[in-house]
């Protein structure tokens, strides 16, 4: 029988990364935050590190630190040769050391992925990205990188060495060479992007040479400072090297001095999802374990760090108990909950505010160079702006509405010592998150209300559940946060009142009758409903089908343990809804589902990195999607539409689900204003247009600070 993963006995055993001794086997993986470029002397980055180390983190890997201006991933990337960046980084590393943690500098060159807007070359012309070969990528808008000359390749290697020496001088405890995720070193390794026939290309050994020589140079530059190389376990690109080729590279890197191999997955160009909510937890484990096997066969002892879609330390424990990989890297989960380690070590798993894999405030923002934060933790990346310090005077604050915005407000108030009462008309917290958690692939959305409910109770907040607050209820408070959310919008279509027409809340909560379904509205909620209709509701059943889809299955014993975890964890909706609803939500053929949208893109409002995944899955399932139309009427037989050009078509439907947006629901604001009660309206209750949970939780945080500093 496998060991109990909740005990975390293997996770909390010490291990060595070269000369660095670490107390547990969880690494804060690299993630771009943009904090390195904030003009605050490094205080924002220092506060970010400090809070996670105080929450139990032992080793943090920085976001990519460019080894040259030409290597930066965008205007908000730090360049290690920049004196101002050095000053900020040194300050942040010092703060991490004071808190008792260690920091590794990730040495980074974006190659053809570089974004160099505003940068000029030595003669004043706009700088061009560089790459092994002059091949553009699809998001470069036709810009073709310049192929590095043979001598220039050596110059870039020297830039890595110089950056490594700089990192050591600044006080970093280790360096990580970024050779994964399609960046420059990875580009040299792949025949997809390396068409050279010189000493840097032409066959597998020569394509790998750039990675080998870079590590040699870095190793010399830093002496005995620990060095990790993050290599690709699988590029997930056509004609890319096979995983066993990267395992062979890992052996060569270990031979010449890599203390650890961190395993990444996929390129930005890949059409296989790697980090989105649709990807099962730890789906890419076998890529890391393949590298472990190759190292052991070769007699090399470099540590191996697995990553990608690990969120729960019980999953990490299950993997570590296998005795293969040495450590697990989690990145976004530390945005969601800086106290992930401390809470898990104490067995308080239900208190952990889990990363939901939405990407909306983190990866999606980083792609457009906006400040990175977290949907479920709006303080992430803003710790210095919103410090968690005890309030100077205790205020009595009411929060009305227990959805994302209300939970964010209530938690911030309670954590700072205010007297909080949260009114929620439903019998549990969650709001729109409670609906989202019923969508296959979004089960993790249940973790935020579960964690919020438990933490608020522990902090002494009062939860008035099943209670729709009135103005009289709120009269004695020092301030009120109105987070009453939204209601489904009623459509003005003849026949919308027919009994087989459901709004999305009713459909998600209680299921949809068997037969053909037409969904009116193709935004984010419409595609969620379609996903619910064509995917099994039971996460355990769906998990067994995920592994073949992604091509890298968990080993059978790990998958079985994960199924048990999914089934038994308190608060996880493995079979959401009542028995009737569950029965009516068994997966149906995609051909039975049609999504309609008057105009515009399907899935509008879904994040950049998730939209293509969700729509691709629906197309693969056979869901019909029709746009550029007008609605004529709904009949007992279906939905009658008119196409562009006037062609009329009746789409058969046994049920019609309306997903045509939301309307703000604020039944109290006017009366509170008339009574002179201080209040703030946040989230969908303030503005239902383009409802955005990132906006809602951020507004909840800001409102809490305004009402009770």
Protein model, in words:
- There is one protein chain.
- Helices cover 34% and strands 17% of the residues.
- The longest helix has 21 residues, at 150-170.
- The model is unreliable at 539-554 and 560-584 (pLDDT under 50).
- 57% of the residues are buried.
- The radius of gyration is 26 Å and the shape is globular.
- Helix 6 (243-255) packs across helix 7 and helix 8 packs antiparallel against helix 19.
- The strands form seven sheets. It has an eight-stranded parallel beta barrel, surrounded by six helices. The protein has a five-stranded parallel sheet with strand order 15-14-13-16-27, sandwiched between helices. A five-stranded parallel sheet has the order 18-25-19-20-21.
- The chain folds into four domains: 5-367, TIM Barrel (Alpha-Beta Barrel); 396-488 and 663-707, 3-Layer(aba) Sandwich (Rossmann fold), CATH 3.40.50.720; 501-535 and 587-660, 3-Layer(bba) Sandwich (FAD/NAD(P)-binding domain), CATH 3.50.50; 538-570, no CATH class.
- It has 23 helices and 27 strands.
- The protein is an alpha/beta fold.
């Amino acid at each position: 029988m496998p060991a109990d993963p909740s005990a975390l006995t293997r996770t909390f055993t010490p291990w060595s990364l070269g000369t660095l001794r670490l107390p547990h086997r969880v690494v804060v993986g690299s993630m771009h935050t943009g904090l390195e470029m904030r003009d605050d002397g490094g205080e924002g980055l220092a506060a970010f590190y400090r809070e996670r180390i105080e929450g139990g983190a032992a080793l943090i890997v920085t976001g990519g630190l460019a080894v040259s201006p030409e290597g930066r991933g965008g205007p908000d990337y730090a360049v290690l040769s920049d004196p101002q960046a050095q000053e900020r980084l040194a300050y942040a590393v010092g703060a991490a050391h004071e808190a008792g943690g260690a920091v590794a500098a990730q040495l980074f060159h974006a190659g053809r992925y570089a974004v160099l807007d505003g940068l000029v070359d030595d003669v004043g012309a706009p700088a061009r990205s560089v790459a092994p070969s002059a091949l553009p990528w699809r998001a470069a808008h036709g810009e073709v990188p310049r192929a590095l000359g043979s001598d220039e390749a050596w110059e870039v290697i020297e830039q890595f060495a110089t950056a490594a020496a700089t990192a050591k001088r600044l006080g970093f405890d280790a360096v990580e060479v970024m050779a994964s995720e399609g960046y420059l070193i990875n580009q040299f390794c792949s025949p997809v992007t390396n068409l050279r026939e010189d000493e840097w290309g032409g066959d597998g050994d020569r394509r790998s040479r750039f990675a080998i020589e870079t590590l040699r140079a870095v190793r010399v530059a830093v002496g005995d400072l620990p060095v990790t190389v993050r290599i690709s376990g699988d590029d997930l690109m056509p004609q890319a090297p096979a995983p066993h080729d990267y395992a062979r590279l890992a052996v060569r890197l270990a031979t010449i001095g890599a203390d650890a191999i961190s395993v990444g997955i996929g390129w930005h160009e890949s059409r296989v999802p790697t980090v989105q909510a649709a990807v099962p937890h730890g789906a890419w484990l076998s890529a890391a374990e393949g590298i472990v096997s190759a190292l052991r066969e070769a007699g090399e002892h470099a540590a191996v760090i697995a990553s990608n879609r690990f969120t729960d330390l019980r999953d990490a424990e299950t993997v570590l108990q296998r005795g293969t990989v040495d450590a697990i890297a989690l990145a976004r989960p530390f945005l969601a909950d800086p106290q992930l380690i401390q809470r898990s070590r104490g067995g308080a798993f239900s208190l952990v505010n889990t990363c939901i894999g939405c990407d909306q405030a983190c990866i999606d923002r980083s792609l457009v160079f906006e400040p990175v934060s977290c949907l479920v933790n709006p303080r992430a990346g803003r710790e210095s702006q919103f410090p968690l310090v005890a309030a100077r005077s205790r205020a009595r604050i009411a929060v009305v509405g227990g959805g994302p915005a209300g939970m964010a407000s209530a938690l911030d108030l309670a954590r700072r010592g205010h007297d909080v009462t949260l009114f929620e008309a439903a019998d549990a917290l969650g709001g729109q998150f409670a609906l989202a958690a019923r969508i296959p692939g979004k089960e993790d959305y249940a973790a935020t209300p579960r964690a919020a409910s438990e933490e608020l109770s522990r902090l002494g907040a009062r939860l008035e559940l099943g209670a729709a607050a009135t103005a009289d209820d709120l009269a004695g408070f020092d301030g009120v946060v109105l987070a009453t959310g939204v209601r489904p919008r009623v459509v003005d279509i003849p026949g919308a009142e027919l009994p087989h027409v459901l709004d999305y809340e009713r459909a998600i909560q209680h299921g949809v009758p068997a037969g053909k379904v037409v969904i009116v509205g193709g935004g984010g909620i419409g595609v969620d409903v379609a996903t619910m209709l064509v995917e099994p509701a039971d996460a355990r059943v769906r998990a067994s089908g995920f592994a073949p889809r992604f091509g890298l299955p968990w080993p059978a014993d790990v998958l079985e343990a994960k199924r048990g975890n999914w089934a038994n964890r308190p608060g996880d909706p493995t079979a959401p809804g009542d028995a009737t609803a569950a029965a009516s939500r068994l997966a149906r053929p995609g051909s039975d589902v049609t999504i309609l949208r008057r105009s515009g893109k399907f899935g509008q409002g879904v994040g950049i990195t998730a939209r293509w995944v969700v729509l691709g899955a629906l197309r693969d399932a056979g869901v019909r999607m029709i746009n550029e139309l007008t609605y004529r009427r709904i009949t007992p037989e279906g939905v009658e539409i008119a196409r562009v050009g006037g062609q009329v078509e009746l789409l058969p439907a046994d049920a019609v689900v309306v997903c045509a947006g939301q309307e703000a629901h604020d039944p109290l604001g006017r009366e509170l204003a008339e009574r002179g009660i201080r209040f703030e309206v946040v989230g969908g209750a303030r503005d239902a247009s383009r409802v955005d949970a990132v906006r809602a939780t951020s507004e909840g945080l800001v409102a809490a600070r305004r009402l009770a500093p």
